Automatic annotation (TrEMBL), chain A:
Name this protein carries in UniProt: ABC-three component system middle component 8
UniProt keyword list: Membrane, Transmembrane, Transmembrane helix
Source taxon at top rank: Bacteria
Pfam families reported in the protein's UniProt record: MC8 (PF20295)
InterPro entries: ABC-3C_MC8 (IPR046895)
Transmembrane regions listed in the UniProt entry: 45-64
Automatic annotation (TrEMBL), chain B:
KW Ligase (keyword) present: no
Superkingdom, taxonomy of origin: Bacteria
Chain ranges of the DUF2326 domain: 456-596
Organism: Candidatus Electrothrix aestuarii
Name of protein: DUF2326 domain-containing protein
A Pfam family annotated for this UniProt entry: DUF2326
Gene3D superfamilies, sorted: P-loop containing nucleotide triphosphate hydrolases
Amino acid sequence: MLRPTKHSHPDRTVINVSLLLLDYLKKYRIEEYGKLRRKIKEKTVGGDVLFLPALSFLYLLGLVEYRPKTDAVEYTGPDEAV
Amino acid sequence: MKLSKLYSNKPECFQDIIFESGLNVVLAEIRLPENKKKDTHNLGKTTLGHLLNFLLLAKKNPKFFLFKHLDLFREFIFFLELELLDGSYITIRRGVQNATKISFKKHEFAQQNFVDLAEDTWDHHDVPFERSLSILDALLDLRSLKPWTFRKGIGYQLRSQDDYRDVFQLRKFMGKHADWKPFLSHITGFNADQITSYYEKEKQIDDKKKQEQIIQNEFGGSLEDISKIEGIILLKQKELEKKQAFLDAFDFRSQDKEHTEQLVNMIDERIATLNAERYSLQKNQKKIKDSLKEEQILFHPDDAERLFKESGILFAGQIKKDFQQLIAFNRAITDERCAYLQEELGEIDDRLKEVNAELDTLGKQRSETLSFLNETNVFNKYKKFSNELITLKADLSSLERQRDSLRRLQELRTSLRRIKEKLEHLQSDIELDVEQQNADPTCLFSSIRLFFNEIIEEVIDRKALLNVALNREGHLEFKDEILDESGNATSADSGTTYKKLLCTAFDLAVLRAYLDKKFPHFVFHDGVFESLDDRKKENLLNVIRRYSDLGIQVIITLIDSDLPPKSDRNKEVFGEQEIILTLHDENEQGRLFKMASW
């Protein structure tokens, strides 16, 4: 699922959507789940479908955390880009 | 959530304050005899509360002492360590100069000093204010406050002298009731959604009434006029139809202009055909341009590799390689298609140019022909009729506008009635909820009520009542009353002496009711013993100690003359452990900020 095949469009892959997520979260640190999903949907075709797998992927890599009180996703990776 | 440590980057001016998990005393000693009679001592008891509020992300206020005396405090950076509900800690860093940029660090152990922590070691460094609020709210995880943030109730946790005037309405809640009553009803266990929507509905009614007034002022007239206007519209429409029919029946051929009319018709027809063709061509052109655009690939393998690397993830060249191959493949199949599309686009562009040129010529021809036609007498007549028709149409549209406004007025009134109906239903629901909560001895509100009474009874030996009822407008009214021996309300609660006690009791009762829930577990009471007599101070201290033992962190400030009497002559009132900060008036070293008063 992560490695692209010749049939996949490079923009419509988990890696690309994770990248968009990572780029956004590194800049804004925390964002509400719904808003984040909307942002990704705007940015790439099929972003809404790939959103959750991409988020899970980043979670597996230890780069994001979910915060239930505010229903938000927080960036928890290294901080050097700020 | 409890306070753990407060410190700054200038320990010589502001000493570290380490909070205990139970009772914490900030004691101010008035050692100079000339200061004994003064009301204010300027040592920093109240300032400590303000400082805590600042570190718990209060909005930047130019009147706040740190910003008012920026020349003194510019260089200060403060750190507040908080204990979270899961036993871990978070440190908040907020400087004076850059007060809207806040940093956070989560850690496992208490009593850290992060003054010299490198920028990249903070979990979040220099985050803008609004984002910081979201981050802290998420990390504190005080779910019992949901949907409000932790900031909404902070006034009940950090009672300053100004907040002792009313038990329920804090100074910052001086505005509309809709801002704070839903929150207060939520923490006291009532259905806050109902109360929020009650205030919303009231606002809707207000708005609609304003709209109604605007329409009435603009157009005048009443709803009775609607029938009159409809009548006039009908008459004018009939007249319009008549005139239109006359114009339509105008026989151009009888005026020996046959060839002219034919010419016009032919030109018009050709123009219509060309317009249709231009439309279809432009549509195709857009489609092709869109599909050419769609085939762009925004993904950059190099950026992906860099960003993942920055986040500490390495794919050992895999991502880059796979995606580069994929992009090459995509480019190969789209290149060929692109060529076809480009070719087609070229053809369309050429044809469009031709069509536009022909349309220009035809347009010129038509206007020339028409100007020839206009010169005849017949067309003078035609013009006259047309003018009359225009006046008639203008009259009609003005009447129709008036009719529409009146209809809107009618709709507004209908929806107003509907909202009022809903409001009444809502009021009954709220009444029912209040009744149920009042009657249920096991609910949250009853617990708060019982704890509240227990505290007051223990301190002044009188019963006290927390009361929540609906007033005439359907709004919740919160009341606190001290009862006399026979159980009737007295006016003792209206005096300032007991007001402070009631505020303290309410805050403690709420905290106790939420002891095992995701709720703040600390309270800061400024000058809590002031103007109470000795016996009562002792009783209140016993209550505070008992609550501290239950797991509530109580921080109190007092001056030595307000100290409760010693129960044992050889023993101090407070243990060394309990006094977290001693201030005195002998010299600058005795102040919270070791500098001249500002």
